[in-house]
Amino acid sequence: MPVKIRLARRGKKGYAFYHIVAADSRAPRDGKFIEKLGIYNPNTNPATIDLSFERALDWLQKGAQPTDTCRAILSQQGVMYRKHLLGGVAKGAFSEEEAQSRFEKWMQEKASKIEAKGQKLESAKASAEKARMAGEIKVKEERAKAIAAKRVAATAVDEEVEESTEVAGEAEESAEVAEEAVETIAEPEVAPAVEEAPAIEEAPVEPAQEEEKAAE
Predict the structure, then answer these.
(1) Mind listing the pLDDT tens digit for each residue in 61-110?
(2) Which of these CATH numbers, 3.20.20.140, 1.10.357.10, 3.90.1170.20, 3.30.1320.10, describes 3-80?
(3) Each residue of 12-45: pLDDT tens digit?
(4) Helix or strand or coil: residue 214?
(5) Which residue, among 51, 62, 57, has the nearest Cα to 80 in the 3D structure?
């Protein structure tokens, strides 16, 4: 029975993860499998891989063929390199101790690379967070300046309105004073009427005086 080491899809739409399984090559992709070898989750950074190293190596030695994706995963975990070293031991190219020493050295280098990558990711994350905070602070400062400018403008408008009101009040008072002055000029005080002197009554003229006046 040809066996393949492949991925079986799990999870939900938009957040899929995979089981690494040994299955009959004729079985459906997500169907029955012989043995579960691990989990591969590409949704994290870096991707999360939980693999049973010895079981995966055992299946490779039995002739199981990994798919391209699984080969990359097994290579990244050192399974493929371990299989290569064991093949060299079987051929007599080097001893088991030499193979173990080479593998441990490779694993140390791999761990150093993974650690360096993790530090780089953390540094990039910290830089991005710092930039985000700086951007937020800048936005807050700009908003504060805009609010302060609005308040200054509103205060200036209020002072201008108050000043205009005072000027209008003074103008109104001046107008009232001028109106009173005009009324005073237009309507002069009338002097009290002078009492007429009593008419002088003429004395009665005697007849003789009348004749004299006529002779004249």
Answers:
(1) 999 999 999 999 999 999 999 999 999 999 988 899 999 999 999 999 98
(2) 3.30.1320.10
(3) 888 899 999 999 988 887 788 999 999 999 998 8
(4) helix
(5) 57
